[in-house]
Amino acid sequence: MFDDAFALVLAGVRDGTLRDDTPYDVLALCERFDVRPAVLGGALQRLADIGLAHVTPGDVVRFTRLDPVAWAEGTRLLVGLVEVSMRALVPVATDDDVRRYEELVAAARRAAAERGDELDTTVLATIDFWAERTPEGFTARLLVRTMQQMRYGLATRPPWQDPDDEAWLASSLQALRLRDTGSAERAAHVFARLWERYLTSSAAVLGTDLRQTAGHASDDLYWADWRPDADWFELLGSIRDESLVRGQEYPLRALTARFRVPLQRLLPMIRRLEVMGLVEAGPDREGSVLVSTPTVDDWAETISLLLGLKEMCARSSIPVLTDGDVDELTALIARARREARVRDYAYTTTLLELNRFFALRSPNRAMRQTTTVVIARLAYILPEPPPFRQWAVEDFLQLLEEAVTSRDPDIASDACHALAAHFDAHIVDVRTRYGSMES
Length: 439
Known about the structure:
The protein is mainly alpha-helical. It contains 18 helices and 6 strands.
C-alpha cells in the first residue's frame, strides 16, 4: 500500500533533493509529496528496512546509506532471488519474453565487446528482466527492492566493469529458450559465481572485506527491530478468526482505536501483515487497508520463495556449522526420515524446521530475516495450510547428509533442488485436491 509514496521519496534520495544525514520533519515531507502521514510513515519504514532511512522519535527522518558489508549482504540475497524468479518464469515464458531477453543479451554483448560505460547498465538490465517478467508477484517485489538497495545503498556504487560475462548471458538465454527449470538453476549458479567476482573487485575499490562472515551485519536492516508482542498477536488473531473480515476495508485510524495502539506502533504491524499477504492497500490507497483473500497461487508462490531462501541459507551456513549444529541437523534429518517412512503428519512441521535451522545459522542477515518473514507468510496465508504428502524424499535427505559431511555448499544446492522437485509435485497435488482454496 506504500508503493507510490516509497517511489516518490526514493526518487528524492536518488536525485539529491533529500540530502543524506539531514533531519527532515515527516509532516513537512507529507506536504512536499502530497501524501497522508500514515502512508508516508509506511514508505519511510520501508526505506528503513533496506537501510536508506532512519526514523527517530519526534517524527524526524534522516536519509542514510549502507555500510559496504551490509550492502554486499543484500546483493547476495539479490542473487538468490534471481534464481527463484528464473525458476518461476522459465517454464511459462512466452515468445515475447524470449525476444525481449534476446535484445537485452545482445546489448550486453555489445557493451562487453566495446568495454564501455554501458556495460554496467546492460548487465543490470538482464537482472531487471527477471524481476519484471517473473509470474510470482511477491518474489518480484522483493527482487525489485533488493535491486534498489544494490543500486542506491552506497553513496558511490562501484560499476560493473567485468566484460567476461558471456557464460551468464549464454546460459540464461538458453534456459529461457528451452523453457527448462534445471537449465535455469544452472544459469543462476553461473550468475552467482560472476557476482562474487564483482564483489571481489568492489571490495578492492571500497577498501573493505566483503566476504560473507558471521557478525558483520547491520542491526538496522531487514525487520531487525521487529518484536512481536501482545498487540501484534491480537491483530493477527483478529485476521485469522475473521473478526477483521476478508475483503473489507478498514481505515488505519479505526484500527488504532480498535486495538488501542498509536499509529506509530500500528504501522510496523501493518507492514508485516502486508508482507505476509494478509492485508493490502485500500481502494483509495490512502490511509486504509483491505483484508486480503489469499488464493492457492499466493500459497504456491510463497512455497517457491521459501525453497529459494532455504537454498541461500543452506549454502551460506553449511561451511560454518559447529559440531553441535551438525548433531542437531543430523537429528532433524533422522526425524524427517522416520516420519516420512510412517507417513506421520508431523513430517510437514519437521521439514519447516529444517528451513528455520538453516535460517538461524546463516551468517547473512538479509537471508536470515527475510526467511523468518516468509515462514510466517506460509504459516498464515491460508486458513488451513495443506500438509506435505510427498513421502519419498530420500534423495533430498541423502544429499543433505552428504553436504553436511563434506561442508560443500554446491551439494547443499543439489539437495535443495531435489526437494524443490518434490514440492512442485506437492503443489500439483494440492491444486488437484483443493482447487483454488479461495473459500
